[in-house]
Structure formats: structure tokens, C-alpha cells
Amino acid sequence: MRVLVTGGAGYIGSHTIVELLRQGHDVCAVDNFDNSSPVVLDRIQELTNRTLTFHQTDIRDTAAMTDIVAGFAPDAVIHFAGLKAVGESEAEPLRYYDVNNGGTVSLLTAMDAAGCKRVVFSSSATVYGEPVYLPFDENHPCQPSNVYGRTKYFAEEILRNWQSATDGACAVLLRYFNPVGAHPSGRIGEDPRDVPNNLMPFVAQVAVGRRAALSVFGNDYGTHDGTGVRDYIHVVDLALAHIAALDFAARNEGTEAFNIGTGQGYSVLDMVSAFSRASGRDIPYKIESRRPGDIATSLADPSRANAQLGWRATHDLDDMCASTWNWQSTNPNGYGDG
Ligand code: NAD
Ligand code: UFG
Q: Ligand 1, from 59, 80, 127, 259: best to mutate by most atoms within 8 Å of Cβ?
């Protein structure tokens, strides 16, 4: 298949491109490096011994995107490009709506001009908001509680409306739970620009000595140890879910949402002890107050993806921690090491 990947230099995009190239697909990637480094492109090609086409372009530049889509003539698009920091989205809502929603409209406009009718979209479990019941299945009401979550929900609606107005189109909405881990080679991984917002990269930076201690945001939740529980999913499993979704999009018409998680929950303290085991390092932490907007537990029911995509997560918590540690310890400053 010929696959156009937006946000291809990012964390999840880079891991997905590796799996696409490995399986013999042809890839054209687009990224403006807003939150990534060109170094990743060399690493991808080195890991796979294959080349990819790349354009440094903003997805909101509809004229440039139209030329790129027409020139590459993809069978399908995987749309990762977007902004993802919850706190920043509250402070800069218009930028988030512009990139995440305006960018999606721009991409679909370019796809329409070239007659490309299949898209796989990076959505998020955050579209569900506060749980009405758990685990979340795809019929759970969507009541996102922050701007970032709303941009993901609105992008899903844009894709749904585009698909129903476009003969023969298919839109697959992948609602990721908590992506963690790195490629087992240690050559690509998550490289946050500033202080990490997310648990796993923060823990990894404490283990490697870049930060003194982890702040655990609350130990008074109704969970087995009082700290927040999440459904962590290995990024290689997540990458493979995109390939299963492309296959689904090639065989089906319509819009379908799928939860991409394991169905297994771990608390913050479970993650700290698993990472400490994997790295052989102490992870100092201090208990602090709850982070505003956090929920106690987020857990996927992944059975629809298991049945309809023929996909299932196979990596366990030890794989998630060991691969993160391999990446962090061999690239202590991420791609800044070159
Ligand atoms: P990332 O920031 O590493 O990757 C996103 C990529 O998009 C970056 O390389 C960035 O430079 C690029 N980009 C941003 N704005 C762009 C624009 N206007 N034009 C072109 N490129 C642009 O993030 P990620 O973790 O790989 O996430 C990928 C997608 O998955 C995002 O849409 C994110 O919202 C979604 N998602 C991520 C998580 C997570 O926890 N990592 C969870 C659920 C959903
Ligand atoms: N946590 C800490 N200390 C930290 C960071 C996080 O205790 O320094 C805790 C949080 O309170 C939470 C858990 O670790 O209980 C996980 O937090 P993350 O920030 O890693 O992940 P979230 O579940 O809050 O959100 C992530 C992404 C969202 C995405 C969501 C669901 O940040 O963009 O998963 O996919 F929408």
C-alpha cells in the first residue's frame, strides 16, 4: 500500500512508519517538526534499511498538502499530526482548534482533490471524559473535559461527516489509551521537548538522573493503592494497530471507532516499581496533591478492536519499561544527542 503519514516524525508516527516499511509498504511522511526532530528520519531509515519520502510542511497549508497528496497518490492516510498537551490546550485553545481541527479539514480537502478515500485517525481515550462506567467501550458517552479532548472529539465528527458525504470512503478512529515504551532497538522513542507532562517519560528522566524526583499526583483515589490507574499500551503494539486499521479501511466503508488498549490497568506506584525493576535504579518520588482534571481510573474494553481489526496487544508491562529504559539510557538527551 502507499501510505501518507502526517506527523510522521513524532513519537507514535515514527514507530508506525518503521512497521509500515518493514511490512513492505511505501511511505510519504509530512511533519513541520513543531514537536519532533529531523534526526528521527535517519533513524527510521537506518532501522529498516529502506527510504521514505518526506515533506517539511504544515498540514494547515492546504495548497502544499494538495500537491503532496496528488503527487504521492496514497491508497490511505494515517493522520497523527496534532498538538497534544492538555494544559497548553486550555491556555491556547484557538491554536489547538486551528491545528487539530483546521488541520484535519485541510488534510481532507487535499485528499478530496486527489480522490483519496481512506483515513486512519489518532483519537484518544480522553474523548470519553469522566467515566460513567468502566471499562470504557466505544459506546460510552463522549464528554471530553478539556480543550484538547474536545479537539479530538470534534475531529472525529469532522471525519464522520466527511466520510458520510464521500462515496466509498472509510474513516477509522483509533482511541488510544496511554501509549508508552519505545522500539526495542533503543534507536527511536519518546523525546518530550520540555518537562514531560506524562508519567512514563518523567519516570525515565528521573531514573537516568535528569530530574530529582517524581511528583505523584494524589494517593487518595479509590484505586488499589490510592494512585491513578491507567491502561498503558506499548507503542509497537499501537503501531501495529494502525496497520490492522489500514487493512480494515481497505475492506470496509463507513466510520468506525476502536479502543486501542490492553484492558489491564496499572497505578502510578505499579509503574514506578516496574520501572525501577527494569532499570535497576531507585525512582525517588513524593506524594503531591491531585492534578486538576485527572480521573481515578481509565481502562479500555479493547474487544471491538480484537474482533474487527484482528489486533491484540502482546507486549506486557516489563516490555514497556525495559524498552523505555533502553531508549532513555542510550539517548539520555533524546534526539538532542544527534
Ligand atoms: P508527537 O507530538 O510526538 O507527534 C505529533 C507530530 O505532529 C509531531 O512530530 C509534530 O511536529 C507534528 N505536528 C504538529 N503540528 C503539526 C502541523 N500543523 N503540521 C505538521 N505536523 C505537525 O505526538 P504523538 O504522541 O506521536 O501523538 C500523535 C497523535 O496521537 C496526536 O494526534 C496525539 O493527539 C494523538 N494521541 C497521543 C497520545 C499520547 O499519549 N502520546 C494519546 C492519545 C492520542
Ligand atoms: N502522573 C503523576 N505524575 C506525573 C505525571 C502523571 O503522578 O508527573 C499520574 C497522573 O496523575 C495519572 C497517571 O500518572 O494518574 C497518568 O498520567 P499521564 O499524564 O501519563 O496520562 P493521562 O492519563 O493523564 O493522559 C494521557 C495523555 C492524554 C491522553 C490520555 C488518554 O496525556 O493526551 O492519556 O489517551 F488523552
A: 80
> Within a domain: residue 338?
no
CB 330 within 8 A of CB 210: no
pTM value > 0.70: yes
Summarised one tens digit per residue, pLDDT across range 124-146 is: 999 999 999 999 999 999 999 99
Ligand 2, atom 1: closest residue by C-alpha: 199
Give a yes or no: residue 204 inside a domain: no
What are residue 292's phi and psi, to 5 degrees? -55, 135
CATH number at residue 35: 3.40.50.720
pLDDT in tens, 290-299: 999 899 999 9
Pocket-forming residues, ligand 1, beta carbon under 6 Å? 7, 9-13, 30-36, 58-60, 80-84, 99, 103, 122, 124, 176, 179
Q: Give the range of the structural domain holding residue 245, as residue numbers without chain letter.
A: 2-182+232-261+299-313
Count of structural domains within the chain: 1
Residue 221 appears among annotated catalytic residues: no
